[in-house]
Amino acid sequence: MARGAEGKLRRRNERKNAREEGNDPFMAPVEDDDSDDADEQQIGSDVPPPKKKSTSKQSIPVTQKKKEGIKTLPLVLLVLLTGTAVLPALIYASDFLGAYFQKNHVFGAIGYKLGLGPSPKKRVLSFYEKHDPSKIDNVDSILAKHYGDYPKLLKKLERKYGDYGYFLEWEQDEAPMTLALEKVQETREYIGEKFNLYAPQIVKTGVRNARHNIGFLYKRGRRAWKKTIWPHLEPFFGVPKGSAAQKRKDAQEARRKKEGQRRRKNTEFRDDVED
After folding, report:
1. How far is 116 from 143, CA to CA, in rounded Å?
2. Fewest CB within 10 A of the end CB: N or C in the chain?
3. Separation between Cα atoms, residue 185 and residue 172, nearest integer Å
4. pLDDT for the residue 41
5. Residue 140's closest CA among 164, 108, 117, 170?
């Protein structure tokens, strides 16, 4: 205990004993001396305060921090231990799925439904309408089964039903220009049908006369172009000299073929002809 506190306690005890010994009730009470507290504070101020412990964590230099990450060696060992057991299962699953997809033509059905690439659907439908109408409902499944190998399917159908050459140039059935011309023809037929059904008779007569007049003018103009105008322009824009005779010769040969002259059959690649 500090010296100032001991002196204060001693003085308090002395004053207490003095009050107990004196029996005078009118004796003024002795007040505590505040100077002792001041002395104690002065004495206590001479003592340096204790150092406070810093609660903040000391910053560790970056170079001293421990690097944390994935440990590669245990990971490699884990892959080596489990890979030998998982790899055969993956190979079996891939073989099973591949055989299942091939058997059920999954990818072919997806490609056919998405419309990837040209499809001989129109030609196959007309072919079955001609030879086997009972299979018209199965055309989609047949085409999905042979997706990507349509030439093999078409040859098989031609060989089975003996109708060779039915699928020649089937790729042109879905060419952009062919589809556009078919759409134009369908639109023209639809408009003509509605026009003949609902148009008044006077309008029908006027359209028929206009069509006849336009056709007549077209024929007259074409004849005038060939007979009158083109002979004057041919030396400047036509074919080279001497080609007129070749053109006449080609026209005569084409006319002869058209009239029914039969060409001699080519027997160069036939097996049933003896030398």
Report:
1. 12
2. C
3. 17
4. 52
5. 108
Angle between helices 3-21 and 34-46 (to 10 degrees): 160
How far is Cα 12 from Cα 4, in angstroms, rounded to an integer? 12
Q: What's residue 242's pLDDT?
A: 65
pLDDT band per the 50, 70, 90 thresholds, residue 73: confident
Tens digit of pLDDT for each residue in 13-59?
888 888 877 654 445 554 544 555 554 555 444 555 555 555 444 44
Chain-centroid distance, C-alpha 248: 58
* pLDDT for 77 beyond 50: yes
Taking Cα atoms as reference points, which of 128, 122, 120, 119 lies closest to residue 161?
128
Q: Which amino acid is at 228?
A: T
- 43 CB-near residues (< 8 Å, 6+ apart): 2, 3, 4
What is d(CA 153, CA 143) in angstroms, rounded to the nearest whole number? 8
Written as one letter, the residue type at 81 is: L
For 140, counting Cβ atoms within 10 Å of its Cβ (0-12 exposed, 13-18 middle, 19+ buried), the class is: middle
Q: What is the pLDDT of residue 178?
A: 77
Q: Is 176 helix (H, G, I), strand (E, B) or coil?
A: helix
